[in-house]
Amino acid sequence: MKRIIKSPINILLLCLTFVFAACSEDRGPEPLEHNSNQPAVVTNITIQNLPGKAKLTYTLPTDDDLLYVVARYTLENGTPMEAKASYYSNSLLLEGFAGGSTTEVKIYAVNNSETESKPVVVSVNPGPAPIFDIFDSLNVQPDFGGIRVTAANPTKEEIGILVMQKNIQGDWVPLRTSIYTSVDEIKRSLRGFESVDQEFAIVVRDKWLNYTDTLVTTIKPLFEQLMPKSAYVGVHLANDAKTINNAYPVSNLFDGQFLEYWGSYFTDRTIDVGNHLVTFDIGAKTKLSRLRLWQFSEPIGGQRMYYYLGAMKKFRIWGSNTLNDGTLDSNWTLLGEYEIKKPSGLPYGQENNDDLLAARDGADYEIPLDKQAVRYLRIECLENWIGGKFMAVSEVHVYGNPNF
Protein backbone atom coordinates (compact mmCIF):
# COMPACT_ATOMS: atom_id res chain seq x y z
CA MET A 1 0.00 0.00 0.00
CA LYS A 2 1.31 3.43 -0.91
CA ARG A 3 0.02 6.83 0.07
CA ILE A 4 1.24 10.27 -0.86
CA ILE A 5 1.13 12.89 1.89
CA LYS A 6 0.85 16.38 0.43
CA SER A 7 2.02 18.22 3.53
CA PRO A 8 5.41 16.79 4.54
CA ILE A 9 6.22 19.82 6.70
CA ASN A 10 4.05 18.48 9.52
CA ILE A 11 6.26 15.49 10.22
CA LEU A 12 8.79 15.68 13.01
CA LEU A 13 11.69 15.26 10.63
CA LEU A 14 11.09 18.63 9.07
CA CYS A 15 10.98 20.55 12.36
CA LEU A 16 14.52 21.74 11.88
CA THR A 17 16.33 24.10 14.19
CA PHE A 18 18.81 26.52 12.72
CA VAL A 19 21.51 28.24 14.72
CA PHE A 20 22.96 31.38 13.20
CA ALA A 21 26.23 32.84 14.38
CA ALA A 22 26.02 36.41 15.63
CA CYS A 23 27.74 39.01 13.53
CA SER A 24 31.04 40.16 14.93
CA GLU A 25 31.52 43.82 15.62
CA ASP A 26 34.72 43.57 13.62
CA ARG A 27 33.59 44.35 10.09
CA GLY A 28 36.82 43.09 8.59
CA PRO A 29 39.01 44.95 6.09
CA GLU A 30 37.60 48.10 4.56
CA PRO A 31 37.71 48.70 0.77
CA LEU A 32 40.95 50.32 -0.37
CA GLU A 33 39.00 52.76 -2.53
CA HIS A 34 36.27 55.14 -1.44
CA ASN A 35 34.22 55.90 -4.51
CA SER A 36 30.72 56.66 -3.28
CA ASN A 37 29.37 57.28 -6.78
CA GLN A 38 26.94 54.56 -7.74
CA PRO A 39 28.00 52.50 -10.75
CA ALA A 40 25.65 52.23 -13.70
CA VAL A 41 23.16 49.35 -13.77
CA VAL A 42 23.36 46.16 -15.77
CA THR A 43 21.24 46.16 -18.93
CA ASN A 44 19.82 43.84 -21.59
CA ILE A 45 18.90 41.20 -19.02
CA THR A 46 17.65 37.91 -20.39
CA ILE A 47 16.21 35.13 -18.25
CA GLN A 48 16.46 31.39 -18.83
CA ASN A 49 14.19 29.50 -16.44
CA LEU A 50 15.50 26.02 -15.59
CA PRO A 51 14.40 23.25 -13.19
CA GLY A 52 14.87 24.82 -9.75
CA LYS A 53 17.18 27.48 -11.20
CA ALA A 54 17.25 30.60 -13.35
CA LYS A 55 20.17 31.83 -15.45
CA LEU A 56 20.49 35.60 -15.95
CA THR A 57 22.55 36.99 -18.81
CA TYR A 58 23.20 40.72 -19.05
CA THR A 59 25.38 43.52 -20.36
CA LEU A 60 27.83 44.93 -17.83
CA PRO A 61 28.11 48.67 -17.19
CA THR A 62 31.30 50.34 -18.43
CA ASP A 63 32.49 51.70 -15.06
CA ASP A 64 36.28 51.37 -14.78
CA ASP A 65 36.12 50.23 -11.16
CA LEU A 66 33.36 47.65 -11.57
CA LEU A 67 34.07 44.66 -9.30
CA TYR A 68 31.13 42.28 -9.46
CA VAL A 69 27.39 41.84 -9.97
CA VAL A 70 25.14 40.51 -7.23
CA ALA A 71 21.57 39.24 -7.34
CA ARG A 72 19.43 38.97 -4.20
CA TYR A 73 16.25 36.98 -3.89
CA THR A 74 14.23 34.91 -1.43
CA LEU A 75 13.38 31.25 -1.92
CA GLU A 76 9.83 29.99 -1.58
CA ASN A 77 10.70 28.57 1.85
CA GLY A 78 11.79 32.01 3.09
CA THR A 79 15.55 31.56 2.80
CA PRO A 80 17.34 34.74 1.64
CA MET A 81 19.80 34.07 -1.18
CA GLU A 82 22.60 35.94 -2.91
CA ALA A 83 24.46 35.06 -6.11
CA LYS A 84 27.59 36.87 -7.29
CA ALA A 85 29.61 36.98 -10.49
CA SER A 86 32.82 38.92 -11.14
CA TYR A 87 33.17 41.50 -13.89
CA TYR A 88 34.82 38.78 -16.01
CA SER A 89 31.41 37.14 -16.45
CA ASN A 90 28.13 38.35 -17.91
CA SER A 91 25.85 35.78 -16.33
CA LEU A 92 24.54 34.60 -12.96
CA LEU A 93 22.99 31.30 -11.94
CA LEU A 94 20.27 31.58 -9.29
CA GLU A 95 19.70 28.29 -7.47
CA GLY A 96 17.59 26.77 -4.72
CA PHE A 97 14.05 27.30 -6.00
CA ALA A 98 11.31 24.76 -5.40
CA GLY A 99 9.91 26.06 -8.68
CA GLY A 100 6.49 26.66 -10.10
CA SER A 101 6.10 30.22 -8.82
CA THR A 102 7.32 33.72 -9.65
CA THR A 103 10.12 35.28 -7.60
CA GLU A 104 11.38 38.85 -7.64
CA VAL A 105 15.14 39.30 -8.06
CA LYS A 106 17.11 42.51 -7.48
CA ILE A 107 20.35 42.88 -9.42
CA TYR A 108 23.13 45.28 -8.44
CA ALA A 109 26.44 46.28 -10.02
CA VAL A 110 29.12 46.82 -7.34
CA ASN A 111 32.39 48.75 -7.62
CA ASN A 112 35.74 48.38 -5.85
CA SER A 113 34.47 50.55 -2.99
CA GLU A 114 31.55 48.15 -2.44
CA THR A 115 29.18 50.87 -3.60
CA GLU A 116 26.12 49.33 -5.19
CA SER A 117 24.15 50.59 -8.16
CA LYS A 118 20.45 51.11 -8.10
CA PRO A 119 18.69 47.76 -8.28
CA VAL A 120 17.29 46.36 -11.48
CA VAL A 121 14.26 44.26 -10.64
CA VAL A 122 13.29 41.22 -12.69
CA SER A 123 10.98 38.26 -12.10
CA VAL A 124 12.01 34.64 -12.60
CA ASN A 125 9.76 31.61 -12.81
CA PRO A 126 11.91 28.46 -12.54
CA GLY A 127 10.48 25.08 -13.34
CA PRO A 128 9.98 22.46 -10.59
CA ALA A 129 13.21 21.52 -8.82
CA PRO A 130 14.86 18.21 -9.83
CA ILE A 131 13.79 16.58 -6.56
CA PHE A 132 10.24 16.28 -7.89
CA ASP A 133 11.31 14.19 -10.89
CA ILE A 134 13.50 12.13 -8.57
CA PHE A 135 10.51 11.58 -6.30
CA ASP A 136 8.37 10.51 -9.26
CA SER A 137 11.01 7.92 -10.18
CA LEU A 138 11.18 6.44 -6.66
CA ASN A 139 10.67 2.72 -6.37
CA VAL A 140 10.62 1.03 -2.97
CA GLN A 141 10.38 -2.75 -2.71
CA PRO A 142 11.11 -5.52 -0.22
CA ASP A 143 14.70 -6.67 0.06
CA PHE A 144 16.49 -9.17 2.24
CA GLY A 145 16.44 -7.82 5.77
CA GLY A 146 14.96 -4.49 4.70
CA ILE A 147 13.89 -2.41 1.74
CA ARG A 148 15.43 -1.54 -1.62
CA VAL A 149 15.21 2.08 -2.78
CA THR A 150 15.89 3.02 -6.39
CA ALA A 151 15.53 6.37 -8.15
CA ALA A 152 16.87 8.29 -11.16
CA ASN A 153 18.95 11.42 -10.59
CA PRO A 154 20.22 12.16 -14.11
CA THR A 155 21.61 15.61 -13.25
CA LYS A 156 23.46 14.27 -10.19
CA GLU A 157 21.85 16.64 -7.72
CA GLU A 158 23.00 16.61 -4.09
CA ILE A 159 19.94 15.17 -2.40
CA GLY A 160 18.72 13.32 0.64
CA ILE A 161 16.19 10.51 0.37
CA LEU A 162 14.88 10.53 3.92
CA VAL A 163 13.44 7.18 5.01
CA MET A 164 11.33 7.40 8.16
CA GLN A 165 9.45 5.23 10.62
CA LYS A 166 7.25 6.22 13.54
CA ASN A 167 8.68 6.42 17.05
CA ILE A 168 6.81 5.38 20.19
CA GLN A 169 5.07 8.78 20.24
CA GLY A 170 3.74 8.14 16.74
CA ASP A 171 5.90 10.79 15.07
CA TRP A 172 7.80 10.13 11.86
CA VAL A 173 11.56 10.21 12.46
CA PRO A 174 14.36 9.64 9.95
CA LEU A 175 16.46 6.50 9.98
CA ARG A 176 20.19 6.98 10.40
CA THR A 177 20.59 4.92 7.25
CA SER A 178 18.69 7.45 5.12
CA ILE A 179 20.30 8.07 1.75
CA TYR A 180 22.49 11.09 0.98
CA THR A 181 23.97 11.03 -2.49
CA SER A 182 24.67 12.76 -5.78
CA VAL A 183 24.95 9.72 -8.06
CA ASP A 184 22.82 9.49 -11.19
CA GLU A 185 21.39 6.02 -10.54
CA ILE A 186 20.37 5.50 -6.92
CA LYS A 187 20.23 1.88 -5.79
CA ARG A 188 20.39 1.38 -2.06
CA SER A 189 19.30 -1.30 0.38
CA LEU A 190 18.46 -0.44 3.99
CA ARG A 191 18.78 -3.48 6.22
CA GLY A 192 18.29 -4.57 9.80
CA PHE A 193 14.49 -4.99 9.80
CA GLU A 194 12.36 -7.92 10.89
CA SER A 195 10.38 -9.80 8.27
CA VAL A 196 6.98 -8.37 9.29
CA ASP A 197 4.75 -5.73 7.72
CA GLN A 198 6.24 -2.31 8.45
CA GLU A 199 5.25 1.22 7.43
CA PHE A 200 7.84 3.53 5.90
CA ALA A 201 7.58 7.17 4.86
CA ILE A 202 9.96 8.55 2.23
CA VAL A 203 10.60 12.14 1.17
CA VAL A 204 13.23 13.70 -1.13
CA ARG A 205 15.04 16.84 0.00
CA ASP A 206 17.66 19.05 -1.64
CA LYS A 207 20.44 21.07 0.01
CA TRP A 208 18.26 24.20 0.04
CA LEU A 209 15.69 22.35 2.20
CA ASN A 210 13.06 22.02 -0.48
CA TYR A 211 10.92 18.93 0.10
CA THR A 212 8.73 16.75 -2.06
CA ASP A 213 5.49 15.13 -0.98
CA THR A 214 5.86 12.08 1.25
CA LEU A 215 5.47 8.53 0.00
CA VAL A 216 4.02 6.22 2.65
CA THR A 217 4.19 2.50 1.99
CA THR A 218 3.84 -0.78 3.90
CA ILE A 219 6.51 -3.37 3.16
CA LYS A 220 7.40 -6.77 4.58
CA PRO A 221 11.20 -7.22 4.35
CA LEU A 222 12.41 -10.59 3.11
CA PHE A 223 13.87 -12.93 5.69
CA GLU A 224 17.68 -12.92 5.82
CA GLN A 225 20.22 -14.53 8.08
CA LEU A 226 23.97 -14.85 8.31
CA MET A 227 24.60 -18.40 7.20
CA PRO A 228 26.39 -20.19 10.05
CA LYS A 229 30.10 -20.13 9.34
CA SER A 230 30.53 -23.43 11.18
CA ALA A 231 28.98 -25.09 8.13
CA TYR A 232 31.38 -23.57 5.59
CA VAL A 233 33.92 -25.95 4.08
CA GLY A 234 36.72 -25.17 1.69
CA VAL A 235 36.66 -26.99 -1.65
CA HIS A 236 39.51 -27.29 -4.13
CA LEU A 237 38.62 -27.62 -7.81
CA ALA A 238 41.14 -28.28 -10.56
CA ASN A 239 41.38 -24.67 -11.75
CA ASP A 240 41.33 -23.01 -8.33
CA ALA A 241 44.41 -20.90 -7.63
CA LYS A 242 47.20 -22.16 -5.42
CA THR A 243 47.84 -20.40 -2.15
CA ILE A 244 51.24 -19.06 -1.12
CA ASN A 245 53.25 -22.19 -0.25
CA ASN A 246 49.90 -23.88 0.47
CA ALA A 247 50.11 -22.18 3.90
CA TYR A 248 46.83 -20.27 3.73
CA PRO A 249 43.85 -22.66 3.51
CA VAL A 250 40.42 -21.68 2.17
CA SER A 251 39.09 -21.97 5.73
CA ASN A 252 40.93 -18.72 6.52
CA LEU A 253 38.11 -16.98 4.67
CA PHE A 254 35.69 -17.83 7.47
CA ASP A 255 37.84 -18.24 10.59
CA GLY A 256 36.79 -15.00 12.32
CA GLN A 257 40.18 -13.31 11.80
CA PHE A 258 39.71 -9.90 10.16
CA LEU A 259 43.17 -8.31 10.16
CA GLU A 260 46.15 -10.57 10.69
CA TYR A 261 47.84 -12.29 7.77
CA TRP A 262 47.73 -15.73 9.41
CA GLY A 263 43.94 -15.64 9.34
CA SER A 264 43.65 -14.38 5.75
CA TYR A 265 43.52 -16.07 2.38
CA PHE A 266 46.18 -15.38 -0.26
CA THR A 267 46.63 -16.90 -3.67
CA ASP A 268 50.09 -17.30 -5.14
CA ARG A 269 51.20 -13.96 -6.57
CA THR A 270 53.84 -15.63 -8.75
CA ILE A 271 51.12 -17.25 -10.88
CA ASP A 272 49.47 -14.73 -13.18
CA VAL A 273 47.89 -17.06 -15.75
CA GLY A 274 44.11 -16.89 -15.82
CA ASN A 275 41.90 -15.39 -13.16
CA HIS A 276 42.37 -16.61 -9.60
CA LEU A 277 39.46 -18.64 -8.19
CA VAL A 278 38.58 -19.95 -4.73
CA THR A 279 35.67 -22.30 -3.96
CA PHE A 280 33.76 -23.16 -0.78
CA ASP A 281 30.59 -24.90 0.41
CA ILE A 282 28.20 -22.86 2.62
CA GLY A 283 26.48 -26.01 3.91
CA ALA A 284 22.96 -25.63 2.50
CA LYS A 285 21.20 -24.53 -0.65
CA THR A 286 20.40 -20.88 0.00
CA LYS A 287 18.67 -17.99 -1.70
CA LEU A 288 21.54 -15.54 -1.32
CA SER A 289 21.12 -11.86 -0.57
CA ARG A 290 24.70 -10.65 -0.26
CA LEU A 291 28.28 -11.47 0.55
CA ARG A 292 30.15 -9.23 2.96
CA LEU A 293 33.88 -9.21 2.24
CA TRP A 294 36.77 -7.86 4.25
CA GLN A 295 39.80 -7.28 2.03
CA PHE A 296 43.19 -7.92 3.57
CA SER A 297 44.75 -4.66 4.73
CA GLU A 298 48.52 -4.39 4.38
CA PRO A 299 50.27 -2.84 7.42
CA ILE A 300 52.33 -0.09 5.78
CA GLY A 301 54.12 2.62 7.74
CA GLY A 302 52.06 2.11 10.87
CA GLN A 303 48.70 2.19 9.09
CA ARG A 304 46.47 -0.29 7.25
CA MET A 305 46.26 0.02 3.46
CA TYR A 306 43.00 -1.48 2.17
CA TYR A 307 43.30 -0.70 -1.54
CA TYR A 308 46.73 -2.22 -1.96
CA LEU A 309 48.55 -5.14 -3.56
CA GLY A 310 46.30 -8.23 -3.71
CA ALA A 311 43.11 -6.64 -2.35
CA MET A 312 40.52 -7.25 -5.06
CA LYS A 313 39.50 -4.38 -7.31
CA LYS A 314 37.38 -6.32 -9.82
CA PHE A 315 35.87 -9.72 -9.12
CA ARG A 316 32.98 -12.10 -9.78
CA ILE A 317 30.88 -14.36 -7.57
CA TRP A 318 29.68 -17.68 -9.02
CA GLY A 319 27.21 -20.18 -7.57
CA SER A 320 26.16 -23.79 -8.19
CA ASN A 321 24.44 -26.74 -6.55
CA THR A 322 26.77 -29.36 -7.97
CA LEU A 323 30.54 -29.51 -8.31
CA ASN A 324 32.37 -30.20 -11.55
CA ASP A 325 36.04 -30.04 -12.55
CA GLY A 326 36.00 -26.27 -12.10
CA THR A 327 35.12 -25.31 -15.65
CA LEU A 328 32.93 -22.20 -15.60
CA ASP A 329 30.27 -23.66 -17.85
CA SER A 330 26.47 -23.83 -17.50
CA ASN A 331 26.98 -25.67 -14.21
CA TRP A 332 27.93 -22.32 -12.64
CA THR A 333 25.66 -19.27 -12.44
CA LEU A 334 27.24 -15.84 -12.45
CA LEU A 335 25.72 -14.20 -9.36
CA GLY A 336 27.39 -10.84 -9.80
CA GLU A 337 30.36 -8.90 -11.13
CA TYR A 338 31.75 -6.08 -9.02
CA GLU A 339 34.24 -3.25 -9.13
CA ILE A 340 35.51 -1.65 -5.93
CA LYS A 341 36.10 2.10 -6.11
CA LYS A 342 38.24 4.00 -3.66
CA PRO A 343 36.06 6.79 -2.19
CA SER A 344 38.88 9.34 -2.15
CA GLY A 345 39.92 8.76 -5.76
CA LEU A 346 43.55 9.10 -4.63
CA PRO A 347 46.32 7.40 -6.63
CA TYR A 348 47.45 3.88 -5.79
CA GLY A 349 49.35 3.79 -2.50
CA GLN A 350 47.57 6.84 -1.09
CA GLU A 351 44.49 6.49 1.13
CA ASN A 352 42.61 8.84 3.45
CA ASN A 353 40.09 8.47 6.26
CA ASP A 354 37.15 8.13 3.83
CA ASP A 355 38.86 5.07 2.34
CA LEU A 356 39.51 3.63 5.79
CA LEU A 357 35.89 4.03 6.87
CA ALA A 358 34.59 2.46 3.66
CA ALA A 359 36.78 -0.63 3.96
CA ARG A 360 37.44 -1.25 7.65
CA ASP A 361 34.07 -2.84 8.46
CA GLY A 362 33.83 -4.80 5.25
CA ALA A 363 31.53 -4.10 2.31
CA ASP A 364 28.37 -5.78 1.03
CA TYR A 365 28.18 -7.17 -2.49
CA GLU A 366 24.55 -7.80 -3.27
CA ILE A 367 23.15 -10.75 -5.20
CA PRO A 368 20.23 -9.82 -7.49
CA LEU A 369 16.85 -11.11 -6.34
CA ASP A 370 16.31 -13.08 -9.56
CA LYS A 371 19.36 -15.33 -9.08
CA GLN A 372 18.81 -19.00 -8.22
CA ALA A 373 19.49 -20.50 -4.80
CA VAL A 374 22.91 -22.16 -4.56
CA ARG A 375 25.10 -24.10 -2.14
CA TYR A 376 28.61 -23.77 -3.58
CA LEU A 377 30.31 -20.43 -4.12
CA ARG A 378 33.34 -19.31 -6.07
CA ILE A 379 35.09 -15.95 -5.89
CA GLU A 380 37.02 -15.06 -9.03
CA CYS A 381 39.54 -12.22 -8.87
CA LEU A 382 39.71 -10.40 -12.20
CA GLU A 383 42.10 -7.66 -11.11
CA ASN A 384 43.71 -6.58 -7.88
CA TRP A 385 44.85 -3.08 -6.89
CA ILE A 386 48.38 -3.61 -8.12
CA GLY A 387 47.06 -4.71 -11.51
CA GLY A 388 47.61 -8.46 -11.13
CA LYS A 389 45.30 -11.44 -10.61
CA PHE A 390 46.19 -12.81 -7.17
CA MET A 391 43.82 -12.12 -4.29
CA ALA A 392 44.19 -11.26 -0.62
CA VAL A 393 40.95 -11.57 1.37
CA SER A 394 40.57 -11.57 5.16
CA GLU A 395 37.01 -12.75 5.76
CA VAL A 396 33.70 -13.58 4.07
CA HIS A 397 30.16 -13.57 5.50
CA VAL A 398 27.34 -15.07 3.44
CA TYR A 399 23.75 -13.86 3.96
CA GLY A 400 20.53 -15.26 2.63
CA ASN A 401 17.47 -17.41 3.26
CA PRO A 402 17.94 -21.20 3.44
CA ASN A 403 14.17 -21.61 3.84
CA PHE A 404 13.23 -19.97 0.54
List the helices and strands and how they pair.
Blueprint: E1 2-5, E2 43-50, E3 53-59, E4 66-74, E5 80-86, E6 91-95, E7 103-111, E8 120-124, H1 130-136, E9 139-143, E10 146-152, E11 159-166, E12 172-174, E13 179-181, E14 185-191, E15 198-206, E16 214-219, E17 225-226, E18 233-235, E19 265-266, E20 276-295, E21 298-300, E22 303-305, E23 312-320, E24 333-339, H2 353-360, E25 363-366, E26 374-384, E27 392-401
Antiparallel strand pairs: 1-16, 2-3, 3-6, 4-5, 4-7, 7-8, 9-10, 10-14, 11-12, 11-13, 11-15, 15-16, 17-27, 18-20, 19-27, 20-25, 20-26, 20-27, 21-22, 23-24, 23-26
Organism: Flavobacterium glycines
Signal peptide: 1-21
Keywords: Signal
Could you characterize what this model shows?
- With 404 residues, the protein is mainly beta.
- The protein has 3 domains: 2-15 and 130-222, Immunoglobulin-like (Sandwich); 43-124, Immunoglobulins (Immunoglobulin-like, Sandwich); 226-401, Sandwich (Jelly Rolls).
- It contains 2 helices and 27 strands.
- The chain has helices at 130-136, 353-360, and strands spanning 2-5, 43-50, 53-59, 66-74, 80-86, 91-95, 103-111, 120-124, 139-143, 146-152, 159-166, 172-174, 179-181, 185-191, 198-206, 214-219, 225-226, 233-235, 265-266, 276-295, 298-300, 303-305, 312-320, 333-339, 363-366, 374-384, 392-401.
- The strands form 6 sheets. Strands 17, 18, 19, 20, 23, 24, 25, 26 and 27 form a 9-stranded antiparallel beta sheet that branches.
- The two termini are 24 Å apart.
